[in-house]
């Protein structure tokens, strides 16, 4: 059985970035930039007014604060006339500054008459209220580096620079297969021996949080049904997440079905709790994660293995664990790495009660998983632990 770090290393070796493609900027939301973006223009593209007011030549103030108003320019148009001594142009926010003007006085700091205006702003200086061409970015400047995930701020920034397409890594297509003849959909009446199926909704939500599209399938404990489904899905998805049936019981068909189909199994079983039976394989071009059926095991393996692998495929880096100071006491046996549901705040971490792998109540209260190393057994307040924020 391999250790947790060995399992991580195998996934890192096997999983590569998916190909990149060029998409319309809105479609790039939450994708990772594969190529840097360079500016096609200066932004703003021209000197423009930050205020509603009057544009004039600052040097003219030395003669008089009174100006003749010889025209008007609003956002979207230009003023093509020439300014003579102590002449001003009425201007509105975003409008192009007339070529001869260099300063704008806001209208609240003027006295307006029919054809004249008096500048009363005592603090005005050369260039006041003028937003300069190229003051956000210059043409050919790098706007965003490759490797950045495109959020709404970056979308706004690139759109403001006139960028309408970007090259990003493809997002993996993911299929979730739940196995178990005992499972019924929440909402249906419970029957003897059956339990409610929770893994598919839970993992689907976790994937939606990563802005990923999923397909969901339910399979009973049948070698034939599972093989058929795996064979079909492995040709059309990048990642298949199976829950349940990955152990060694008589009804655990994940490993036998994969072997029968000729899949490459990279590992099966990791020295960890929860999630010891975890399996990682490849069939055609699809990476396959076989997660144990117990819901807390499935989610723990998702956070620690599947999510990082999905990050790698999208051009992101393997997530780093943070550190926090333990607040309570905990004991475990030597030999397995434990991932424990915990609550982190202000740099402290408290391990929750209810770590058994069939329980989801502690997960519902957790905001991180703390990592308890394989060889350690006693954990006391003040110890530094690695934590994975959820
Ligand atoms: P397995 O890994 O198939 O042996 O399942 C381990 C435990 O998890 C069993 O108690 C199953 O009933 C339960 N289980 C398996 N799949 C699910 C699921 N999708 N939702 C909730 N519980 C499940
Ligand atoms: Mg099962």
Write up this protein.
The protein is α/β, with parallel strands linked by helices and 390 residues long. It has four domains: 4-17 and 171-313, Molybdenum Cofactor Biosythetic Enzyme, Chain A; 21-43 and 135-169, Molybdopterin biosynthesis moea protein, domain 2, CATH 3.90.105; 48-131, Molybdopterin biosynthesis moea protein, domain 3 (Molybdopterin biosynthesis moeA protein, domain 3), CATH 2.170.190; 322-389, Beta-clip, CATH 2.40.340. Helix content is 19%, strand content 31%. It contains seven helices and 28 strands. The protein has helices spanning 4-14, 152-160, 199-209, 223-233, 254-261, 295-313, 361-365; strands spanning 20-24, 37-38, 48-49, 53-56, 66-73, 87-91, 103-106, 110-112, 116-119, 130-131, 142-144, 165-169, 174-179, 183-184, 195-196, 214-219, 239-243, 264-268, 272-273, 279-283, 286-291, 322-326, 330-331, 337-345, 348-351, 368-372, 378-379, 384-389. Strands 7-4-6-5-9-8 form a six-stranded mixed sheet, with no helix packed on it. Strand 20 and strand 21 (286-291) form a beta hairpin. Helix 3 runs parallel beside helix 6 (295-313). It is elongated, with a radius of gyration of 31 Å. The two termini are 27 Å apart. The mean pLDDT is 97. Bound molecules: adenosine monophosphate (AMP) and magnesium ion.
């Amino acid at each position: 059985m391999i250790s947790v770090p060995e399992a991580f290393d195998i996934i890192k070796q096997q999983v590569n970035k998916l190909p990149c493609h060029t998409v319309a900027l809105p479609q790039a939301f939450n994708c990772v930039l594969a190529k840097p973006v360079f500016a096609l223009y200066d932004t703003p593209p021209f000197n423009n007014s930050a205020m509603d007011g009057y544009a004039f030549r600052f040097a003219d103030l030395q003669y008089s604060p009174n100006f003749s108003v010889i025209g008007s320019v609003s956002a979207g148009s230009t003023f093509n006339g020439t300014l003579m001594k102590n002449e001003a142009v009425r201007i509105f926010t975003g409008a192009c500054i007339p070529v001869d003007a260099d300063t704008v006085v806001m209208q609240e700091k003027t006295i307006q008459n029919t054809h004249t205006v008096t500048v009363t702003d005592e603090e005005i200086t050369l260039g006041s209220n003028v937003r300069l061409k190229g003051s956000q970015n210059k043409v050919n400047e790098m706007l965003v580096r490759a490797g950045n995930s495109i959020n709404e701020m970056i979308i706004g920034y690139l759109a403001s620079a006139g960028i309408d397409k970007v090259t990003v890594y493809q997002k993996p297509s993911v299929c979730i297969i739940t196995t178990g003849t005992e499972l019924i959909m929440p909402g249906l009446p419970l029957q003897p021996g059956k339990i409610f199926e929770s893994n598919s909704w839970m993992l689907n939500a976790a994937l939606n949080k990563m802005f990923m599209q999923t397909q969901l399938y339910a399979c009973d404990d049948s070698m034939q049904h599972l093989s058929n489904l795996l064979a079909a899905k492995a040709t059309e998805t990048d990642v298949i997440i199976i829950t349940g049936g990955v152990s060694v019981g008589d009804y655990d068909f994940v490993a036998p079905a994969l072997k029968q189909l000729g899949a490459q199994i990279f590992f099966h079983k990791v020295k960890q709790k929860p999630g010891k039976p975890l399996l990682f394989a490849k069939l055609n071009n699809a990476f396959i994660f076989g997660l144990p059926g117990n819901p807390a095991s499935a989610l723990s393996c998702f956070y620690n293995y599947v999510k990082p692998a999905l990050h790698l495929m999208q051009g992101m880096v393997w997530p780093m664990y943070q550190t926090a100071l333990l607040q309570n006491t905990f004991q475990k046996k030597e030999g397995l790495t434990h991932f424990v549901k915990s609550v982190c705040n202000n740099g402290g971490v408290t391990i929750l009660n209810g770590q058994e792998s069939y329980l989801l109540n502690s997960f519902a209260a957790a905001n991180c998983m703390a990592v308890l190393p394989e060889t350690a057994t006693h954990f006391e307040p003040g110890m530094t632990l690695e934590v994975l924020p959820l």
